[in-house]
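cache lookup: miss for this entity combination. No prior model stored, computing from scratch. Input as submitted by user K.M.:
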Amino acid sequence: MATPWVGEAETREPCKGDAKDTITSMKRQGIAEALREGIAEEMRRDERVFCLGEDIGVPGGWGGAFTVTLGLEKEFPRRIIDTPIAELGFFGVAVGAAMIGMRPIVDVQYSDFIFLAMDQVVNNAAKMRYMSGGKVKVPMVMRLPVGATGRGAQHAQNPERYFTGVPGLKVVAVANAYDAKGMLKSAVRDDNPVMIFEHKLLYGSKGARAESGALDATGDIPDADYTVPLGEAAVRREGSRVTMLGWLLMHHFCMAAADALAAEGIDAEVIDVRSLAPFDYGTIGRSVRKTGHVVIVEEGPKTGGVSAELAAGIMERFGDSLMAPVVRVASADVPTPFAPALENAYRPDAARIAEAARQVLVY
Amino acid sequence: MAGPTTEISAERIAEYDRDFLLSLYERMVLIRQFEERVKFLFLQGSMPGTIHQCNGQEATAVGVCAALDSDDYITSTHRPHGHALAKGLTPDELMCELFGCSTGCCKGKGGSMHVGNIDKGMPPAIAIVGGGIPVATGMALAFKLQERPQLVACFFGDGATSEGAFHEGVNMAAIWNLPVIYACENNLYGASTRIDKVTRLDHVADRAAGYGIRGETVDGNDVLAVYEAAGQAAEECRSGRGPVLLELLTYRLTGHSRRDPSHYQPEEERQEWDAREPIGRMRRGLVQRDDVDAADLERIRANIDRRIEEAVEKARRDPKATAGELMTDVFA
């Protein structure tokens, strides 16, 4: 069966994450707005697409926890479906509807709640196609907001790690508005279950749903339809000395660290990993072979994280190009704390990332 | 309802068309003989894997599926062979799957606990207890959004009613008036734990009131009673008055799995349920008709035994799944 998801995309064309040169008409949007527009466009294009979740279409409500579906129920009264607080149940509902030819977009308000739906995601969504011998398709999109944001231990985790090793799932993480809309569209059009991780500090949610400490992840969003492929990493800053790999908020921190390193004359290459399952070892490998030094940055406890798999994968594939051991910068192995000082200590920051790069360059 | 009885009266048997009755009988015998043959092959060691069998529960699968249209769907459980045969999967495609053949209904990638064929209205059986309940709700939501008239019959056991998935899945179908028949096969035991240890309710059907839907307790070893209850539930679902919870009282005449000798089933209880077992009961009912005699029924059984033997021969002969197929069918 021809699928680009089997094996590794070693010979793929270079990534064109922001192909601005081909676009004429644009507008500036944040991630929440871009996702909202992407969902609406896909729902207009394809009547099989519908949204399922908590508080997503209540008039006078919020449009989900982070305003992504705000107002969509006016245009799609039948296809923006508010559920009871029942994550296990409505993720199962999404699996069943997807098997019958619908294309659900289902979200949890905070990714921490996905643990309630684990059985449906891992045992049903991911495995149905294989168990059926290739007869059943489960084209569903799952959206999950992550990140430590002053809410303590249960509204703060980065659960990407629990899904990247589940065969049958595609997992992406979107760090800017352009990718958010483009990858959402690719996910809706994909015939497989796709998890999209989003970061609370990057949404650009406004008004009462704004997040303190948010970063600017807005982008120039073309008016024309576009997609961003699901399986590709993006080189966001070219450099020659060290490869810095991160995603979501950590990608932004890597960019800041690269600025600091540049002031010291250290030329860092920064890659937004974006596709966590599968990894784009083509793009990553080209960079590793060029720099020979790797720093991987992850929000979430270091032990058993996505970065562990990525480090091992780099060692296996490109170990002969490495001039130093791969270094990981990740959160401490503790639950996400509440107090601002503790949270800042928990989450990697640009200073720690830059320091890790300096250390790896000692070799 | 009153407790299950041991007979089907001549009057009720007389109300039905002969061929229809014989088709129900034939389908139940097919399931029983299939399970008996599978058990032998498993104990003999010629079949890989594990098995969860439905001997004694044939009337629930056959009665419900007889009330469905061919384009309706079912969901099933870790004990799916009977549901599959009742929904129209062939003994060949099932037996080949159980033998790990690439010609099986899931190309040997599903196995006993995941048999299914979506083209025949049965996605792979879901072997996590209760896991299929929200999925059935979602299939019915798709029908509603697509404005299609189909319905889903969702099979699960009494054990599943303790799962959160039961509560969440049934509740969502209730609030959205979805066309689902929740068919609870209450065989009194979740694995080895008797139902009265895990609920204070006398009947699973009583749970329906908690969701504002209709529930009914049915003699699940009387295939006609099951057929009639499922037919009424189907009619309600198709006219927008679903979902319905049917509690089908039945009994497992074999172990929970593999070599389970069922020592937790009291001898007296087993004897009572042996007397209510659905196939003998249907046979005794049928021969009360002037147009059915024992030889007709014997012929049906002989034909089925031949079909099953052919399925076994095919499964022994057909190509088994090979390592070359390991990596396919993960993604669409």
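stored under new cache key. The longest strand of chain B covers residues 180-186.
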